[in-house]
Amino acid sequence: RSSDLLVAMEADRKVVLVTGFGPFGEHTVNASWIAVQELEKLGLGDTVDLHVYEVPVEYQAVQRMIPALWKKHRPQLAVHVGVSSMATTVTLEKCGHNAGYSGLDNCRFCPGTQCCVEGGPECLDSVIDLEKVCKRVAASEMDVAFSISKDAGRYLCDF
Predict the structure, then answer these.
(1) Helix (H), strand (E), coil (C) string for the chain
(2) Predicted TM-score (pTM) of this structure
(3) What is the pLDDT of residue 24?
């Protein structure tokens, strides 16, 4: 039956969530959001449901929005894209930190506790083998350099 086939096809689909940030500071247009929009145009193939969102550079918005997006979409993969004026490569972050946030956001706000989740772990490590990702990119025909970092800088893209 066609309805059984449709259910089976939907079960095989992967859900990918990708976020980029809105403007902040001297970044009147945030390159992370531009990159995410380009990915949305390209897509990830017929078996992937790609969901993209622009995230305001505001701690409280991030604390509300990101968990809600995870709950809504239940992604197999989530990629949160940020921008760095110091980066010379596409930088893959090995972990996200919980504490040490003292920079003000677009609303001139900073969490009083300077952490994402009170009582949460100091670091959330990626389950993706980032070294393998870097090696595969290096072996490909893409003219893009990738590197791995363990510290995104304690601002909202690390939050």
Answers:
(1) CHHHHHHHHHHHCEEEEEEEECCECCECCCHHHHHHHHHHHHCCCCCEEEEEEEECCCHHHHHHHHHHHHHHHCCCEEEECCCCCCCCCEEEECEEECECCCCCCCCCCCCCCCECCCCCCCEEECCCCHHHHHHHHHHCCCCCCEEEECCCCCCHHHC
(2) 0.85
(3) 92
